[in-house]
# Entry
Amino acid sequence: MKKVTVRTLAKYKENGEKFSMLTAYDFSTAKYFDQAGIDVILIGDSLAMTALGYENTNQVGIEEMGIFTKAVARGVEHAMVVTDMPFMSYTIDIPSALTNIGNMVKKGANAVKLEGCNDYILKLIECTVNMGVPVMGHIGFTPQSQNVIGGHIIQGKTYEATKKLIKQAKELEDAGAFSVVLEMVPELPAKDIKDSINIPVISCGAGRYCDGFVMVCDDLLGKFDSFTPKFARKYGDMKSLILDCAQKYNQDVKNGTYPNENEVY
Ligand code: KIV
# Structure
């Protein structure tokens, strides 16, 4: 299988082919997602909650994202590896943002994801692409700004709000982003947004008509039980599997059946 690049995703859009993106935070999960043919693997800052047990994404730092990026990148051969730049790692000033972004590439990221769209972010996208790093944009609901937005609120529900998202999507494209994640937007406005730009739009709770689709791996696998968004589909029940395995092992240790004669040196 060939490595997925910005050109692969552009071709998918051109040909009307859909592509898959999943988050992963560790080596073996990333390796299996890669073997399963997932196109893009995102070291999402959702790991703040799913892997680190923080309350929200804003609590994870650049050092932590670097550790998870290294682990995931080591497991991936084919998929594009994208690192989510965490809260405050890219918004203070352009030089420090570029240093942090460059460091994620040194740890194995093929691209970075930046949330939001304003003059500063557009300038940063230009500088990042000029430095040689592809940028995935992220608009609609942007979790790092949840305190400003006032919670997990669906975006683009009015004509004016959709017009604003279309304008932002075009600005991100013009600044040099190779794709845009659209989070929590109703599917008809999302389709209008997707139809108004030439780079792929990735649905994160933005309906069926986007070019790509992303899900958090812990939702897909049924591992994270604190909350599950409406758009997540649970393909497995890892929570039950983990509980079951751990309970059986615990019993076996306590009743003396682990280890047995084949499990000793
Ligand atoms: O952090 C994350 O997991 C994300 C996506 C689900 C798009 O940003």
Residues 223 and 239 are 5 Å apart (CA to CA). The chain has a mean pLDDT of 98.
